[in-house]
C-alpha cells in the first residue's frame, strides 16, 4: 500500500513537472473547437482549414510576439456536455484564445468555462443572441446574430414574397427554435402564422407534420434548423405535394442539403446567409489559397479565418496573451479582414448586420436579395 | 387528410413490423431479446447503398433499374443473413446454457461493435441514397402516395404473407416445435441448432429488406439509425405480444399509425412519446401484449 502511494506521488510530481514544462514552451497556442466527428463534422473541419491558412500566414511572418503559433484542435461532437469537457481540456493545455464553437448550444456553456479561465473566445458561427447577452467581456462572434438574421428573413418574407400565411417549424435546438422565434417576432401582426411547431432532430419521417401543414395552405414554410432535417423536410414536402417555398437560415446552406433533398425539390428554397465571399474583393487572396489547398470553401471557412486573424492581431496589439488585456483590445480595435472592415459592439457582436437572402437554383446557391 | 395520415402511418408501420418480426421470432425460440437486430437493419441500409452504387457505376441502374434493384436486394439479404448467422454462432450459441442475462449483455456488445464498425469504415456523416425515384404520385381521394410508398407497403405485405405460409411448411412446423420445447424437439429428431440458425437468417433477411426500403424512402442513412429503429421495432414486438408473429405485424403497424396520427393531430414535438405512452397503457391492461399468450412457467 505504501509503495503504491509513493508511486502515485511520484507520478503526480512528474505530471506537475511536465505541465510546468509546457508552460515555458516558446509558442502561443490557439484552439479550434467544434464538431470534428459526427454528422456535421464537415463544419468543424471547415473551421480547422480556415484557421490553418491564417496561422501559416502568421508563422511565415515570424509568428506573434516573437513566438510561433500552434493550433490545438478540440472536438465537441456537437454535444453541449462534451463542449464543456473539451473546453476545460483546452484551458488546461494553455490555449491563449479560442476559435469556436460551432453550435450555439455548445458555445454558450463552453463560454462559461473560458470566461472563468480568462481566455477570449471568438465564435465564427454561433448566432444565438444569448451567447453575448450575459455581460461576458471575453466572448465575441464574427458572424451575425439570429436576431439580425430573423429580421432579414422576416423582411424578405413580407416585402419581397408578400406572404400572408406562414408555417413555422424548428428543430427544438437553441439555434433552431431561437431563430424561428425571432423570425416570428419580426414578422409582426401583418402575417398570419398558421402553424408553429417543433420536430425532433435526427428523426427521418416528417410526413405527418407536413400533411397537417398542407391543410393550412401556407404561402411559405419557415424552418429553423440544420441541413439534414431541412433536406428531408423539403424532399418530403414535395412528396406530399406542397408547393409553397421553404425559407431557412445559415444552418442549411450546405451542398449536403441539396444532395439530400434532390435538385428538383430543393429548387427555389430561400436561405438567409452572409454575402457571397466571391463578391468581396478583400476575400480573393484567402479564397485562392483555400481552394488550392482544401478544395471548395465551406460556409464558415472564411469566418474562422477572420476570427483567428482578429484574435492574433489583438494579441499583437496588446503585447501579451493575458485574456483581459486582449479582450479590451478586441473591443476597441477596428479590423480589416477577408470579410471587410469589422468592429465589435459592447456585447461582442459585429456592429453591422451581415445577412442577405440566397436562393437554390439548379442545385447551387446564389445570392438573391439584399435588405 | 385523415386518409393521408393513415397512409403515412401505414408506410412507417409496415417497416416497423418487418423489423419487429426478427425480434419476435428470436424471442419465441430462445427467449432472448436480440438487441443487435437493429444493427442488421442498419447494415442492410448501408449494403443496399453500396451495392446500388456499384451497379450504378457499372451502368446497370441506368440500363435496367428494376433488375439493379432486385439484384441489390438479393445480395444485401444474402450478406445480412450471413451477418445474422455469424452473430448467432459467435455471440449467442456459446451462451445457450448460461444465465439469461449473459446473452442479453452479449447482444448489447454485438450492437455496439457493429455500430462502431460501420462508423469507422463508412464514416460518421450521413450517406445519401444514390438513386432518386422522382416525385411520381399515385393520386386518389385527395391522397398523395409516391410509388415508393406503394412499393414499401406491398413488399411488407408480401413478406408477411410469405412468412405466414412458411409456418405451414415442414421447416415452419419444426421451428414452432423448437419454440415450444427445445429438448422435446431434439428428441423427435429436429435439428435444433439448424432451426435456431434459420431463425436468425430469416430475421436478418427481413431486416435487410427493411433497411433498403428505408434508405431509399428517406434517402439518407447514418450508422446510428439501427438504434432508434431497433427500439421502435422492439416496442412494436412487445406491443403486439413478444413471441407472437401476427402480434409483431399488428404491433408494428399500430405503432406507425399512432406516431403519425399523434404527430399530426396532437403535436409533432412529442412524436416519440406517443408510442411509448401507448406501450405503457397496453402493458398495464394486458401485460403480455395485444396478441401475446400468457404462458405458464414450465416446472
Spell out the key features of this protein.
A: 371 residues, alpha/beta, Rossmann fold, seven-stranded mixed sheet, 13 helices, B: 299 residues, ABC transporter involved in vitamin B12 uptake, BtuC, two-stranded antiparallel ribbon, globular
Question: Helix and strand layout, with pairings?
Answer:
The complex is a heterodimer of chains A (371) and B (299).
Chain A: H1 2-24, E1 27-34, H2 41-60, E2 68-75, H3 80-92, E3 97-100, H4 104-116, E4 121-123, E5 139-141, H5 146-160, E6 165-170, H6 174-187, E7 192-198, H7 207-216, E8 220-224, H8 227-239, E9 246-248, H9 255-261, H10 263-266, E10 270-273, H11 284-294, H12 301-318, H13 323-332, E11 334-337, E12 340-343, E13 356-361, E14 364-369
Parallel strand pairs in A: 1-2, 1-3, 3-4, 4-5, 6-7, 6-8, 8-9, 9-10
Antiparallel strand pairs in A: 10-13, 11-12, 13-14
Helix pairs in contact in A: 2-12, 3-4, 5-6, 8-9, 12-13
Chain B: H1 2-30, H2 37-58, H3 60-63, H4 65-92, H5 101-122, E1 127-128, E2 137-140, E3 143-146, H6 147-166, H7 170-180, H8 182-187, H9 192-218, E4 220-221, H10 225-240, H11 245-265, H12 271-285
Antiparallel strand pairs in B: 1-4, 2-3
